[in-house]
Design goal:
270 residues; alpha/beta; eight-stranded parallel barrel; 34% helix; two-stranded antiparallel ribbon
Length: 270
């Protein structure tokens, strides 16, 4: 996947790469604030950085949940962030029609976990020629992801990565099995650990997803120690007022300290 990103900085670094940003694009000012901060940190630490932001949230629990500020408006903000900071950007897509639309604005198309088996979506994403990041379904084993990866490759696109975000265990929790990292790497693709979503507490009685952000550092350190190629971290200046997934996001002012420590873990295992 990384080879397809011409504007990815620090490609020669021995660090993990980072997909980070807000859960959803809430506005231009917020997106620029987050991107600028992460770019500053990642440049200092020589971490390859891809800015993440969903242009639309299509998988909400409740009808009145925030879904976005408008597709084109959000995608144009992502494009503007990428151009201004000279960094690649990634966003989720949910339908085959989304693939072509989003590909005109971003560098990486991300397949949500619940949709990783949707053949038409995977094929449409692959055929755009953009890099594709597939999130492993919470309902699948690591071994099962070979078929999702192969759909992208068989559609003529070798630029694919897989992201693990845990496996559903019981009704309201996710378990992160670090054995999944080497298993997924056996598919010969970069493997990303989605730190913040793996700490979600889904299907709360309120209809709003909960989370355990106090364990972000624990999961991140374990992922790096287990050899993950990249990390996925959602962050926000004030998660308590974030319009989506605030319960499991990392406060932006805590990101630098966390990345400093993760880089040291990475260096220790090389």
């Amino acid at each position: 996947m990384l080879k397809a990103l011409q504007n990815l900085n620090h490609k020669d670094s021995t660090n993990f790469f980072l997909l980070a940003g807000p859960c959803a694009i809430e506005g231009e000012e917020m997106a620029f604030e987050i991107a600028e901060k992460i770019k500053e940190i990642s440049d200092r630490l020589e971490i390859p950085f891809i800015f993440k932001g969903s242009f639309r949230k299509a998988n909400r629990s409740r009808l009145d949940s925030f879904t976005g500020i408008g597709d084109e408006k959000a995608l144009k903000i992502l494009q503007k962030v990428g151009t201004h900071f000279n960094i690649p950007t990634v966003t989720d897509i949910h339908t085959a029609e989304d693939a072509k639309m989003a590909a005109a604005y971003v560098d990486v198309l991300q397949i949500p976990a619940f949709l990783c088996r949707q053949t038409d979506l995977l094929v449409a994403a692959a055929k755009t020629g953009k890099a594709v990041n597939i999130k492993k379904g919470q309902f699948l084993s690591a071994e099962s992801m070979q078929f999702a990866v192969q759909k992208i490759i068989d559609s003529g696109n070798p630029h694919v990565a897989v992201t693990d975000r845990g496996t559903m265990f019981g009704y309201q929790d996710l378990i992160v099995d670090m054995r999944a990292i080497p298993t997924l790497q056996s598919l010969d693709v970069p493997v990303v650990l989605d730190v913040t979503h793996s700490l979600q507490q889904p299907n709360q009685s309120s209809g709003v997803t909960g989370g355990k952000p106090q364990l972000i550092e624990t999961i991140a350190k374990a992922g790096i120690a287990a050899g993950a190629n990249g990390l996925f971290i959602e962050t926000h200046p004030n998660p308590s007022v974030a319009k989506s997934d605030g319960a499991n996001m990392l406060p932006l002012d805590q990101l630098e300290g966390l990345l400093d420590r993760l880089v040291r873990v990475r260096q220790a295992i090389l």
